[in-house]
Amino acid sequence: MTPDNQNRLGILFDMDGVLVDSNPVHKKVIRAFCSRHGIKISESFFLENISGRTNREWLPLVFPDRSIREIDRLADEKEQLFRETFDPAAAVTPGLLPFIKELRSNRIPMAVATSAPEENAVFILEHLRIIPCFDAVLHAAHVSKGKPHPEIYIKSASAIGLEPGHCIVFEDSVAGVTAGRKAGARVIGVTGTHTREELSACIKVIASFEEIAFADLMQL
User: What is the CATH topology of the domain spanning 3-22+89-219?
Assistant: First the structure.
């Protein structure tokens, strides 16, 4: 790290459950998708095996006898159903857009670090018209190991020219919180997918971006 960026702060955002309240739709779509294939998914299975993970990680658990090619086809089918169902503009997390604007006005580098496929990331960020706000957008294709492995946050920090230790991560899932902490970042939890108690490993927990401002980040 050079002297010029030793004191810089970077912000790394998970997408689903952080930028948008998409997890209820994801759960609905996953259950409908699995039901279409004769499989029932429980709440505990979703939280333990699906939340925060890539399709290539959780789909083989549900379809253990399928080839990689078939898993990818199933993933495309499931994500297409999600995009047909979800309205990003109606589910944006309260306070997000003013918060991002404040960060940009203070020249804070930002990245999206999501386990979602590229098509979903583009779909959501374009609908919210915030792609230009981010210095990098990393998605499932950028990593070989999903959360709770720290790869996504190590790479997203590097993409904005910082070490993870100089970044704050916003996460909603336990797997994502673990990934951020393992990378060496400080993690702020966003409730919705999990309770405040379940996100107790975070340095701070918020229900929306209305509860935090740039000045709070500098104190952290």
Answer: Rossmann fold (3.40.50)
